[in-house]
Amino acid sequence: MTMTVESKAKQLADADRIIKPQPGPQFEFLASNADIVISGGGAGGGKTVGLLLHPIRHIHKPRFGAVIFRREYPQITAEGGLWDQSMEIYRYCGGTPREGYHDWKFASGAKVRFAHMQREEDRHAWDGSEIPLICFDQAETFTWHQVSYMFSRNRSTCGVRPHIRMTCNPDPDCWLRDFLRWWIDDETGIAIRERSGVIRYFININNEIIWCDSKEQLINDYGKDCSPKSCTFIPSSVYDNKILMEADPGYMANLKALPLVERERLLGCNWNIRYSAGNYFRREWFPIVEAAPALTDTVRYWDRAATETVKGKENKASWTAGLRMGVSGAGEYFIDDISRFQGTPLVVEQTIDNIASQDTRRIRIGIEQDPGQAGKAEAKMYVRKLAGYIVTVNPVHESKGIRARSLSAQVEAGNVKLVRGQWNESFLREMENFDGSTTCVSDQVDAASGAFWLLTQAKRAGTWGR
Fold it and tell me: Computed from CA positions of residues 454, 455, 458, 459, in that sequence, does the dihedral angle turn out positive or negative?
């Protein structure tokens, strides 16, 4: 077959391709000789590419094998995920992809495989395996039992010393926060740069991790059979990834646009920050105006009470909240009315109908659908009762904390304004006390999150009126 000029040029370009780590944390990650090397701290730091580069040095070994784990299968095959990224590396190293198996085979017989470990018990699927290199991408999503169990599968007869590599993003509530404590400032939650790449040693005795600065000291204290492992942590952030910064300058803006907590974790590399009161919404983030401008879209979203009001126990009953929000042509959001009350199911039904007639038919209506068959039937009843109006049912599946995050980012940016009214104080007090938990009062927060969803995601997905 005659080779075209274009195909010949491509072949020469591929042959000249140089695959190497970037200077900085990515290079240090590959250069470390510790048994366990963990890289992380922020999004966009080049951690996953570093993980994919690591097996290349061993692909000439006939019996070498590596397994790269993600917690869930879709994270491997998603657009731009591990499999797609591996295509940009391993095919230039003589690898042959087997998509059905999600692995790469090399001329020597070496293999790199991608796998998931979604359930806790999935770790036992690897019983009896011999894996010279085990990698965990986003290790904070795995449990300590999953990770530590795989230590027993990390063995080798191919001439490559068994070792483990991990990447991670900050999470104050995962096992890594305590595991990496020596490398992270307890007060600030930021990695201590002077300790980056410094190797320490640990042993595990009855699920207690004991650390020391030297292998010899652990052997001296606990005996020669204690088998210390060496470990280090190498922090990284988007500022270390020059290739990404040049190729996609807008990525930094995307990180800065995240809600406060995600921004502090993924851009600020903060291991301490978690969602709590004041981290979703702050009073000073809501400008108050005398009137809203002309609005291009307006919705009234109802978060209905989960418990019926009983005389004498009103303080223990839930509230029903109907929040009206609109968006201007400039992309600013205005909350101009909230109807909040307690009552029996009949009172709730009648009030929603009355307020719909006052709002007029130009105002779209959102109804939150509670989980379960009863919630679905009740939502359908409201759609029938509100015949003639544009009604959208929102079958929520995520926690209220997750649902509030996209709204939180807009509020912090000053893009959500309140029209002055008697309801302002009650609304602001609830918003700033919201911590995302199931125990806090959140009917107005849920109504605001739902209204924002209707004005953004629902409309894009074409679910209006369903």
Answer: positive
Parallel/antiparallel/unpaired status of strands 96-98 and 103-105: antiparallel
Instruction: Identify the pLDDT of residue 10.
Output: 43
Is the distance from CB of 107 to CB of 94 less than 8 angstroms? yes
CATH at residue 437 = 3.30.420.240
Q: Which domain holds residue 16?
A: 8-260
pLDDT category, 306, cuts 50, 70, 90? low
Alpha-carbon distance of 154 to 126, in angstroms, equals 11
Looking at 209, 226, 260, which one is the last position of a domain?
Answer: 260
**244 and 98, same domain (yes or no):** yes
244 and 306 belong to one structural domain: no
Would you say residue 9 has pLDDT above 50? no
Identify the bridge partners of residue 67 per DSSP, sorted by sequence position.
113, 134
Quick: pLDDT tens for 313-337: 445 567 899 999 999 999 999 999 9
Question: Are 367 and 308 members of one domain?
Answer: yes
The span from the CA of 273 to the CA of 258, in Å, is: 14
Note whether 238 and 292 are same-domain residues.
no
pLDDT higher than 50, residue 18: yes
Assign 183 to helix, strand or coil. Answer: helix
Is the model's pTM score more than 0.85? Answer: no
> Where residue 102 sits, what CATH number does that domain have?
3.40.50.300
Which two structure tokens, joined as six digits, stand for 141? 């999503």
For helices 424-433 and 443-453, the axis angle rounded to 10 degrees is 90
Task: Provide the token pair at 66.
Answer: 């590596």
Q: Give the span between the Cα atoms of 162 and 134, in whole angstroms.
A: 8
* pLDDT over 90 percentage in the chain: 60
Q: Is residue 269 part of a domain?
A: no
Pairing of strands 36-40, 163-168: parallel
